[in-house]
Amino acid sequence: MAGLATSFGSGAMTNSISEIGEASCILAIGTNTTIAHPVIGVEVKRALRGGGKLIVANPREISLCRMADIWLQHRPGSDVALLMGLMWIIVDEGLLDLAFVQERCENFEVFLDSLKDFHPKFVEQVTGVPAEQLAQAARMFATSKPATILYTMGITQHTHGTDNVLAIANLAMLTGNIGKPSTGVNPLRGQNNVQGACDMGSLPTVYSGYQSVADAKAQQKFQEAWGAKLSPTPGRTLTEIIEAPNLEPIKAIYLVGENPVLSDPDATHVRKALERLEFLVVQDIFLTETAQLADVVLPAASFAEKDGTFTNTERRVQRVRKVIDSPGESRPDWWITCQIARRMGAKGFDYQNPEEIMSEIARLTPSYGGISYQRIEQVGLQWPCPTAEHPGTIFLHKDTFSRGKGKFAPLQYRPSAEQPDADYPLILTTERSLYHYHTSTMTRKVKGLRKLRSQELLEINPSDAQKLGITDGQTVKVSSRRGQLTATARVTPVSPPGVVSMTFHFAETPTNVLTNPALDPVAKIPELKVAAVRVEPCRPEQNAPAPAMAGSR
Amino acid sequence: MSNVNLTINGGKVSVSGNATVLEAAQAAGIYIPTLCHHQGLAPHGGCRLCLVEVEGMRRLTTACTTPVAEGMAVKTDTPQIQQLRRNILELVLSEHPHACFTCDRKERCGPLDICLRNVGVSERCVTCPKNRRCELQEVVNYIGMPEMTVPYTFRGLSVEKDGVFFDRDYNLCILCGRCVRVCQEVRGAGAVAFTYRGSQALIGTAFGQPLYDVGCQFCGACVDACPTGALVERSAKWMGTPDRQVTTTCPYCGVGCQLDVQVKHEHIINVIPNKDSPVNKGQACVKGKFGLDFVHDGDRLTSPLIKKNGSFVEASWDEALDLVVRSFSKYKGGQFAAIASAKCTNEDNYVLQKFVRAVMETNNIDHCARL
Q: Do B357 and A278 touch (CB under 8 A)?
């Protein structure tokens, strides 16, 4: 998101889901769309049915590859080189949209200068993608318009994640694929309301609507509205909350609906950090692995038991409606937080219902200014929606970018923080299963989903498996510099040689004890997609029986 | 595309030039029965029930495949059409149990009554999981079937139970092909297809393999498309009509599919992807369609818990909140942090960040956007 904010001035999916089906060309990079966002996968298929082209860039042979016109199988962590290579060819062959670049963008010369280093021969060396195939992809992307780019965590969860995003933004601007229908740079958000949580200011640097806490005007506005003195110092990011050796230690944490003991990189470390706290409150619907460490656990109502709104990946604010009563003493999260605030003597927390909260949000958040429950009763509205008459915004940056001109970013190739070596010769990348969600707190409670995928599977290429003496269904030990665990091997050509992959859905196989917490310097996203590991077969007597349904689609 | 004007049953209708006659009729609120047409699928013209008369055309034509034209005059309900539809429907029903249409007790029979009439077990309305919420029943009721001249042939197939979340009872299948087409055209999975030919024709998987082995993703699109009781969600199978239906947003990924959640006896029994939503257009995935059961799980937290001597003890809200408030008061400022949730609503998040900033006097709040 930080990358997009730099290039365009706004960090969100630029276009809408239903536009994807109308695109002439789709570049899907670092996204296993049909697995992680199946309904967007349906849109991709619609585009293909209409004659659209699909370019997939992914180290693994995901199911999207089978539908692709071109599959670029680049090495994990070589995305910047791949994208810059595409642009080198587009510029070299004169396929760029020069009029768009000159009229709508800036900093192009500096970018061109940095592009010089990405000769296709060099790119071939770094990424493993043949120069000829790269050229085909470049021509296809540059000449089929409108073209759209989809990406997810495969792009962002790297120490150079921001560079990856900047490279994608460069490509969209270079080919004039932005600010028009069925174009754009489209990060598909992973969680139901991750867009909304950002929009609402659940971030250390901004109030709702990305109004900076360091901005005196915004500070003044919120001080007046909330009747409290507010700090202009940006707060800490999640990783810095968990640990920051050079800062004042955090002593108390109020943790709502998260399970960092499973989801965060280097999980052993996270657990220790939470155990060190003087006071930990966890508010959740289940007693998660993290909740077990808490001093106080507060029972929350699930999505089906409360009213409110979620903002989806295309910036659409949609209603969440109470379907059933919440069990026992559990209560909606907003109610619990308000109770704490009121008991601490604070004013302004006496909302009767979520609709009252939304009207306060609309009053203080320009991009949500025109949103009310009444207007989104039937169909949700897409922000920016500043006034009660505004119809919402289907795609961003139509006539001008949020920051004025689109800014090209000069880039250089930086390898991932951890490279395979003699001790840890394989690259571990993380993925998701169709049948589970995040740390599986919800999906593992569903019998059918448990049946479809019951355990962690380490996917490994047949050539690597043969070298290591591993057979399908065998229990293997996986170790990295940070930890080790055992998992069941699934020998499959889906994983390229030298790369193994695991999900992080299973508490008994906590993949994130292996992953690397090294951060992207700007976005502070950990490098979950590249970690060096060693895989060894366990002794036969340690073997678990092969799973009945060993698939992992 | 500009609008064209036509008349349907004498009434004037104006629709976009690329609409079909069926869409024009639907837009005008005129019902034309159809069994093979379905949202998102290309016009098929398979079931022939949507036959209409168009002035100037030599023969009757299927409304779902005929594009509208300026000045077109359409009749949807002439005696000739009605007779033809009855004949077609009779053939459709020759392999579908039809006691639920023809039994004279159907209006008076309660759910707990014993089937008194001489209806075979395989044919009884009460043995159909979709009785009273069946699209085929709607079509038959509209067209009207005073009596059946073709006898019913029971296929005698066993129910396929490999769907994990749904069963496939092809004794109830009318071969409309919606499930095949939605799986291929819309979802791109192609897990099921027509097998065999002629009177032996059936829907099935390649070589009768289990769904899991033929690329099924268990999205349930086929179940949503099925107009009969052949494909039914197991959770809703013998639950009858739901008490109520509430439209809400899926709690899983960021797509934000709109789901019509059906409730009976305060339990979620079924989920139908919302057809009118511009986001998912009647589609969902396995998690949204079949994965909402977790809200009823016995492990749900139902009371505040306070840890005493290393183990949790249930507490009242007053006790728990007072303890939280006492402790939080000690850590105002930089020693405090909150971790918010991308699973919670906008309203939950807004209130939490307001609390952190206005009450706890710090900007230490973040969530897992980065994971």
A: no
